Amino acid sequence: MLLKSLHLHNIRSYLDTSIEFPEGSILLAGDIGSGKSSILLAIEFALFGILRGDLSGEALLRKGKQQGSVEFTFSLAGKDITIKRSLKKSTNGVQQDAGYIFMDDRKFEGTAQELKARMLELLGYPKELERKSKSLIYRFTVYTPQEQMRQILLEKEEERIDTLRKVFGIDQYKRITENTEIFVKFVKEQKKLLEQGLLDYEERQQQRKSLQQEWEQASQQWKEMQAKFHAEQRKERECKEKMQELENKVKTFQQKQQQLEVADAKLREKTSLRERQEKQKLGWEEEVVKCKQELALWKKEALDTMEGVEQRVRALEDKIQQKLLQRAELQHQLTSAQAMQAELQKEIQEKEKHHAATALLEKEAKLLEEKLQGKEKRKQEIKETAEKLQHAQQQWQHLFLQAEEHGALLKQIHALQECPLCRQNVSDKHKEQLHFAMEEKAERWRQEQGKLEKEMVVLKKLLEELQEQEEQFLEMQQEYAELQGTLKAAKEHAMELEEKRKKMQAMREQIEKISLQRKGFSEEEVEHWKKQLQAERTLQKQLQEYQSKRQLLEEKQRQLQQVSQLLKELEEGRILLMQQQHALQKELLGYQGVEEKFEHARKEHEEQLQRLRAVEVQVAALQEKVKGLQRLLETLEKELQKKEQQKQELEQWKQLQHWFENFFVPLITTIEKHVMLAVQREFNALFQNWFNILVEDETLQARLDDRFNPVVEQNGYETEVENLSGGEKTAMALAYRLSLNKVINQLMSTIQTKDLIILDEPTDGFSTEQLDKVRDVLEQLNMKQVIIVSHETKIESFVDHVIRIEKQEHVSRVVG
């Protein structure tokens, strides 16, 4: 795998930047905090996405931006592959968006997890890394932040071994052992459960034998009682047949009696109804005569006068309604016109108030315009002050770095036993002279730093004051723009005021016209029409009364005809019922004494039924007893079969526990020790080689013990890693890092990242002589692409290419 290009959009300190990566050794150069490490994090994000607990979306997306993206192109087995991932901000924080992989002229789109799975497949990394929050293979073979490598050297032994197991891909041995312990614990629990279940095995066998004997006795008794039950059942059926025959005759007798009673009731009802209808007929005949007499009293002249009254009433109602609507319409027009006049008067008064304030607004706008004339001059002052502050900060940083190098050099001088050039012993007096000379130089640097710090404080305060003044200018500019808008609106109000005054004059003329029309309305004419309408309505009421009496007469005559017809039908029905009554009385004479015979047969059947039920209860009790014993036997038999299976299963669990504890676990432990020992030997040889290259001190030796712990010897005596200088600790971490890279690449033949390594600040605390050793490291690595992140300018002479990063006003960019 070789890096080709990287495009960053709203990622950390980058707005929109593209970077090209050539082959060979590359230095990412720039000041501390310029954005070098952001490039490495963006590459890791493009390959694997957000790493929970290590690389979050909030840490990647530029502050204040809603979305960002990384587009990364690399070559793999001679093919160019491009992957793009995106970030977007939501209410739940910064989340990954969908992306794509472009290769072989095809575009594969997918979710963040799908892209990670595809990328692990392309890089030849183990598939199980898909479910993990970060890729240890990538972190320990390609890119490892320097503080993480130091952490693995200083952490506890067991934690270091677990980490290395995962990195080497041999942590499955520990997982197998742990899982085996869990399984053996489970086996013991199963054994205990089975043993408890077999405690009452002998007792259950004896119980089954007793139940078998009791079941055989109950079955014999049940068969004998069943024979007796069948005999009683035959006697019950004979009694029941005799009783049912007599019961049918009783039912027939009762039905005939009911029919006779119904016929008597109907005959009485028809006779009573006939009498009531005859009385009603006489009453209606009298009412018909009375109605005819009342209608004869109406005169023909009155009836002639009533003709056409309906048409006259409707005509008068229409005239009155039309006149009243005309009056209401005039009143409505007058009310609406007066309301509009009042509204116009209110709008005119409001606009006259706005018109009066226009002169004051014009004067205020002129004053603001005069104040804004100094804005450009203030901008230039801010720019010049910011440049001075940046220059002072760069000078202070340069002095700080010189002081750091000076401190490291003092430590080396104190540790010198002999001169590296002439190989003579260095005396303590000579060391003190050198120390005194260098301390004077350091004091001058500290004084210069103090002056720069005071100057930076003054410049920062001045810059803050100028920025506050600039914000005041912005507020005045906004206020001026608002005043201009207000003045424009005031001019429009003046034009609208004149238009409203014209409308007001037209409305006054319309109100006068409507008032004149309303005065010409005649109230006397409406009252005259109302009196005529009242007289016509009186005639209309009389006509309705006459018509109602005629309808009543016709209704009485019709009802009289209906009653006469009903009386005729009632007489015919009464004669028919009397005939039916006589026939039923004759039939009932043949059923005398049948009820007494039925009652005697019923009592005989009940006595036999009681005897049958007593035998049936005994049969059911014996049957239930047999079934209960049978169920108990079946349950007990199943329980004994299950216990037999448990005995066999218990023996199998015992054998399984013995095999795992005495054979399997010792075997796995032995295999792991042999594998770890082989890895440790090669790892230790590589580690010693790299450490000796980086630290040319014959008195200082380093190696790894069988638990991969770094062991340091100085003058033949072991010492703690914490006692080493900063440069020596960095050298040890780098040696560990390079050795780990080599061992993993050899163990895992499938990974496709063997041609690339990224070293993040690998020379932190290195002396000048150690920096020279970086050249030897690059030569021995012999990789197609090596990327070094450092602010050491000396490394520029060791590498093939330099990519410079610069940050200005919180924005990073590539400058060369």
Report on the structure:
- This protein has 816 residues and is α/β, with parallel strands linked by helices.
- The protein has 17 helices and 15 strands.
- The chain has helices spanning 36-48, 57-60, 112-123, 136-141, 146-154, 157-168, 172-197, 201-296, 300-306, 309-356, 358-371, 375-415, 428-519, 523-587, 594-694, 726-747, 768-781; strands at 2-11, 14-20, 24-29, 67-76, 79-90, 93-103, 106-110, 143-144, 700-704, 710-714, 717-719, 756-760, 785-790, 801-808, 811-814.
- It has a 6-stranded antiparallel sheet with strand order 2-1-4-5-6-7. A 6-stranded mixed sheet has the order 8-12-13-3-14-15. The protein has a 3-stranded antiparallel sheet with strand order 9-10-11.
- β12 (756-760), α17 (768-781) and β13 (785-790) form a beta-alpha-beta unit.
- α8 (201-296) packs across α14, α10 crosses α13 (428-519) and α12 packs antiparallel against α13 (428-519).
Task: From the structure above, extract its key features.
15 strands; flat; 6-stranded antiparallel β-sheet; 71% helix; 6-stranded mixed β-sheet; 816 residues; single chain
Q: What are the low-pLDDT stretches, counting only 5+ consecutive residues below 50? A: none
Tertiary shape: flat
Oligomeric status: single chain
Distance between the terminal alpha carbons, to the nearest Å? Answer: 24 Å
Adjacency order of strands in the biggest sheet = 2-1-4-5-6-7
Strand content: 5-15%
Coarse structural class:
alpha/beta
Strand tally is 15
Reported for the largest beta sheet, the result is:
6 strands, antiparallel
Rounded to an integer in angstroms, the radius of gyration calculated over CA atoms is 59 Å
Number of helices: 17
The overall pLDDT average reads 79
Portion of residues within helices: over 70%
